[in-house]
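Think of the structure tokens as a kind of shorthand, similar to the way a musician reads notation: each symbol stands for something richer, in this case the local conformation of the backbone. In the example below we present two proteins back to back. Begin with the first one, reading the sequence and then the tokens, and try to describe in your own words what changes along the chain.
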Amino acid sequence: MQLSDNSKSLNNDEILAIIRLIFFIKFEADDPELLIYAGSPTINSALEKMLLSHPFYKDRMEHFGQLNQESLDFVKSKILKDSRLNENMLKELVNNCIFPYK
């Protein structure tokens, strides 16, 4: 993976640290303000690229299946804390927030 401004590559440890940070924001941090990041299509795209490039994850990308119920309930409760959301936005946001799970 290349950084465009200085042409240096991220190493596997740096990629893993960013992956862990994104997973923390998605599945552990309960601040509803973080939904802008947890459900971001741009961040999900970057996450997918990092997962595909990292030796721990690249073979597992096809195996991300259902998220366990406890984690899914946590994500939904975080989303429901945000009163600005309507019912139509909920399903799409949940799907974006639980990526790479289905």
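Once you have a description of the first chain, move to the second and do the same.
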Amino acid sequence: MADEKIVAAAEATAAKKAPAKAATAKAATAKKAVAEKDTAVKKAAPKKPAAEKAPAKKAPAKAAAEKKAPAKAAAKAAAKAADKKTPAKKTATTGLKIKLARSFVGRLDKQIATAKSFGLHKIGDTTVQPDNEATRGKLAKISHMVEVTNA
């Protein structure tokens, strides 16, 4: 009778373990099937290079824009052609003329580097820089070493 209980208990534990193993086996096969489908889809649809896609999309858009506003398209094309033919001119907007008046002797490394970033290497060197926030900030750090005038 004791043997029967042991055999029955062993069969019960085996029955409990068997469905768990079967479920994990089914899950594993399902994952493999999904992975195979993903790889099949990737292989079936080869990707085109981006260079081939871009011109195909832009050409109809340009044609549609030219049909809608031919005057605007012609003006833009003329402006682009003019830009390519003539080199960019430097406009003489407001600038600052900076002259190094004091020596680098005894100055901090940051101050020396700031002066050299302007192109000032020795006493008497001058440069013209744009009048903007970055230039003004640099000048604030070395204002005791330079003379600044409007260019």
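Compare your description with these statements about the second chain. Strands lie at 95-100, 126-130, 146-150.
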